[in-house]
Amino acid sequence: MSRKAAVVALTALAPISWGSTYFVTTEFLPPDRPLFTGLMRALPAGLALLALTRKLPQGAWWWKSAVLGALNIGAFFPLLFLAAYRLPGGVAAVVGSVGPLFVVGLAALFLGEKPTVRSMLTAVTAAFGVSLVVLKAGAAFDTVGVLAGLLSSLSMSAGIVFTKRWGRPEGVGALALTGWQLTAGGLVILPIAFLIEGAPPALTGTNLAGYAYLAFGNTAISYFLWFRGIERLSASSATLLGPLSPITAAVIGWAALGQALGPVQVLGMLIAFGATLAGQLSPRGAKAAQAPEAADVPTAEPFSKTERNGQEVSIDLEVSEVRR
User: Which pLDDT belongs to residue 92?
Assistant: First the structure.
């Protein structure tokens, strides 16, 4: 396996993991507490990584970490949940699937990654595939919900691009940077969750097990792989791994929850998966991006969620997932 293929495979584990969020939320967590769930995902994971790495931001990285944490986690989750509550799951998922298009545009502005016809077509094809998986006939649209969904995708896309643009400070590993962002994002969500949802609910052992999985497997490890992979891939390649989340959510919904998965949904999965693979191909005549030899070598330019989206399963999944 080539070095780039290995990086892609490891990075892909993040959106695949996020695809399990809906199942865990519906089966293990208390209902109707999306912001509290987002808080429990981000803040404990961030604090655990801070304790593990024992590194705090220095100088400009205090505000950079706050900005990245707000974009990737703190603003993304609440906007995503607002969209999920105002729109049918499939509509919210399709609105969120425009993230790769935002990334292509922002990467051209801030990273100098020139958009190509292929990258645009691949992003549109991926969104079309997701729509076949999740969109149902008679789906309703709500202006506030659509706007929130678009802003959530824009927030995560900007987070991807600026994480790639700023890299990470010398001597700081991806694990520490992940901890900074998750902690900052969790602190943004904290007052919003208590203001809107009130005091935390009483938790059972099953609830605690679900939150532990979301915080450490689904967030700490997944976001570490995500941010580390984003450093080594182009912004457009990374964000086009996002459709793996709704695909995973749909498969889990079919296998574990007995949800229908018909020919149209299967076709949508194949289209979205094909677009994901196409997004990882290097342009003809261009040198394949090389991964740094050491995991802790900072990269200044290179660096998506996007957490993602999927069918009703998958957008509720996003609700539970509260990167994104």
Answer: 58
Instruction: State how far the Cα of 73 lies from the Cα of 115, in Å rounded to an integer.
Output: 26
pTM: 0.80
Contact status, residue 25 vs residue 251, Cβ threshold 8 Å: no
For residue 62 the two structure tokens come to: 């205090």
Task: Supply the DSSP string of 119-156, one letter for each residue.
Answer: HHHHHHHHHHHHHHHH--TT----HHHHHHHHHHHHHH
The structure tokens listed for 244 are: 């793996």
CA dist 309 and 286 (Å) reads 31
Per-residue pLDDT reduced to its tens digit, 243-275: 888 888 888 888 887 877 789 888 989 998 999
Instruction: Give pLDDT tens digits for 129-174.
Output: 888 887 665 555 677 878 888 898 899 899 999 999 999 999 999 9
